[in-house]
Design goal:
InterPro entries: G_TrmE, GTP-bd, GTP-bd_TrmE_N, GTPase_MnmE, MnmE_dom2, MnmE_helical, P-loop_NTPase, Small_GTP-bd. By secondary structure, the protein is of the alpha/beta class. It contains 19 helices and 13 strands. It has helices at residues 2-18, 22-29, 56-63, 123-134, 146-153, 159-170, 174-184, 187-212, 218-241, 248-251, 266-274, 317-331, 342-347, 354-357, 379-389, 407-422, 434-451, 458-476, 482-489, and strands spanning 33-37, 44-52, 64-66, 82-87, 94-103, 114-121, 139-141, 254-259, 292-298, 301-307, 335-341, 365-369, 396-398. Mean pLDDT is 90; it is low at 1-19. Bound molecules: ligand FFO, guanosine-5'-triphosphate (GTP) and potassium ion.
Length: 496
């Protein structure tokens, strides 16, 4: 009975250590008011300037003057957009005619009192408005991600949600948008918190063992219980770290690498997919030297398509470096597309050079290009030979980039392959950022260190678990680690 309570007391004390202190709360109230342009700078119909912090009332009083139907009234109503004139704080001159809205703390994006000033998006209006704002006491321009950072510091969102907000802003395709939304909703947050909770519960059990020393009959049972819990957590994390669970492809996109012998039509394929002359196409073998990247939207996925140098032995220094890079790109690809020239295969007796063959697996899409340049009567036969030259099961699509044969099937086919291979039903990947991966790898090392210890090393074992829990806390930002926070928020734009 007493033991049981002691266990819980410890859990509570560990939690207490890691939650935001009251001191921090007080610091929040006395900080500067920040402002920034929330829309992109430039000529446009409307620009939004956001202002957040303790001086928002003064800002409103000084520069917002109601006109239209609300003329003369100066009450600030939560979340109500009003017509107004914006005044220069220094000389009272009307600098623009606009709209303004006030959000009362804590019901705002940052959780602080916030106002938004909607003005005409003009360089002159904005520079006057900004200099007017910075002239006000306690008011300064926001740093990158500072609005979101305040939402984080107030506990409205965790670090994974802040990162997902950034992903949402960066998103260009449907898949990216959907995954960013999941993150914003807290899908990852909940799962990382559950992992940390497991580590903390195991830690509590182990600490109870320390408290009650050796020779107790409960010792064995409690130790086994902690080990079981840690083993399960370890397996869970190891699963998420496995190569099949790469959630980064949803947010950052997946990489498609085009490879093959020189002159097969690799650059022509890239240009076809990109619908522009992204790469140089010439009849000279060895035209492409370096890896060229173009980001495309294929069926809602962000796909970084890479064109590479044709794979062949070369005595040219530049070309051989290109060939080496091409090989590395293929090895690191999420999807490899091999372009072969059918007439060339016919000419060399369907020998696929080893430099290329070694990269062709069932996971590779093989394109037999230039079908326009072979005798149509023999096409079927040549395709059969080509199939025999490649590993069984390799998808093989005959095409002519020049004449257009098979090109719409190619686009649909690529979309199908991507959907089929990377779509996740049910078993949803967790890791969508390299940062999360690094923390989980570190967690795994601490859990392994724990599992290598015996009950006689219970003090050391508790230490390993404490490190593991701390590492998991860094993912969500439950423990503020300044360098982690700085790294996350510096990726934001000003005004977010
Ligand atoms: N005009 C405008 N549009 C915008 C934003 C904004 O700041 N201003 N946003 C900014 O990026 C996004 C919306 N995000 C928001 C997230 C939370 C809250 C907010 O006030 N949350 C409080 C209260 C909720 C409520 O009153 O219903 C909370 O969650 O406690 C506001 C906006 C996109 N559109
Ligand atoms: N007949 C025919 N020629 C093609 C076809 N596609 C590309 N070509 C030609 O093949 C030559 C090589 O095309 P590229 O796209 O530069 O080939 P690559 O594989 O990138 O070549 P490297 O840069 O040498 O690796 C060019 O002259 C293209 O016009 C096709 O479908 N049919
Ligand atoms: K100021």
């Amino acid at each position: 009975m007493i033991r049981c309570c002691s266990t819980f007391r410890r859990v509570a004390s560990i939690r207490h250590l890691t939650t935001k202190s009251e001191q921090l709360q007080r610091a929040l109230a006395s900080r500067p008011t920040i402002y920034a342009l929330a829309t992109p700078p430039g000529k446009a119909g409307v620009a939004v300037v956001r202002v957040s912090g303790p001086h928002v009332f003064d800002v409103w009083k000084t520069i917002v003057r109601r006109n239209g139907k609300g003329k003369g009234k100066d009450i600030m109503e939560h979340a109500r957009l009003i017509r107004c004139e914006l005044l220069d704080a220094n000389d009272g001159e009307v600098l623009d005619d606009g709209m303004a809205v006030f959000f009362q703390a804590p019901a705002s994006y940052t959780t602080e009192d916030t106002i938004e000033l909607h003005v005409h998006s003009s360089l002159a209006v904005l520079s006057r408005l900004m200099s007017s704002l910075s002239a006000l006491p306690g008011v300064r321009q926001a740093e990158r991600g500072e609005f979101t950072r305040r939402a984080f510091e107030a506990g409205r969102i965790d670090l994974t949600q802040a990162e997902a907000l950034r992903d949402l802003i960066e998103s260009e395709t449907e898949v990216q948008r959907k995954w960013a939304r999941k993150g914003v909703e807290g899908r990852a947050k909940v799962r990382y918190e559950a992992m940390r909770n497991d580590a903390i519960l195991a830690l509590a059990t182990v600490e109870a063992l320390i408290d009650f020393g050796e020779g107790e009959d409960i010792e064995e049972g409690a130790w086994d219980q902690a080990r079981r819990r840690v083993s399960k957590l370890r397996a869970n994390i190891a699963h998420h770290l496995s190569p099949s669970q790469r959630g980064e492809i949803y947010t950052s996109g997946l990489s498609l690498v085009i490879f093959g012998p020189p002159n097969a039509g690799k650059s022509s394929l890239l240009n076809h997919l990109a619908q522009r002359e992204a790469a140089i196409v010439t009849p000279i073998p060895g035209t492409t030297r370096d890896v060229l990247e173009v980001a495309l939207d294929i069926a809602g996925w962000r796909v970084k398509v890479h064109d590479t140098a044709g794979l062949r032995p070369s005595s040219d220094v530049v070309e051989s470096i290109g060939v080496q890079r091409a090989g590395q790109a293929v090895e690191g690809a999420d999807l490899a597309v091999c372009v072969l020239s059918l007439p060339e295969l016919v000419n060399n007796g369907f020998r696929v050079p080893d430099m290329i063959g070694k990269h062709v697996t069932q996971e590779t899409v093989a394109l037999l290009n230039k079908v326009d340049a072979v005798d149509p009567a023999q096409l079927g036969e040549w395709l059969d030979f080509a199939r025999m030259a490649l590993p069984p099961g390799t998808p093989i699509w005959p095409i002519s980039i020049q004449r257009g044969d098979g090109m719409s099937e190619l686009s649909d086919g690529l979309a199908e392959v991507i959907k089929h291979r990377f779509h996740s039903e049910g078993d949803e990947p967790l890791i969508t950022h390299a940062r999360h991966r690094a923390h989980l790898e570190a967690t795994l090392r601490f859990l392994d260190a724990f599992l290598a210890l015996g009950v006689e090393d219970v003090v050391l074992a508790a230490e390993e678990l404490r490190y593991a829990a701390k590492e998991l806390s860094k993912v969500t930002g439950l423990i503020d680690v300044e360098d982690v926070l700085n790294a996350v928020f510096k990726e934001f734009c000003i005004g977010k």
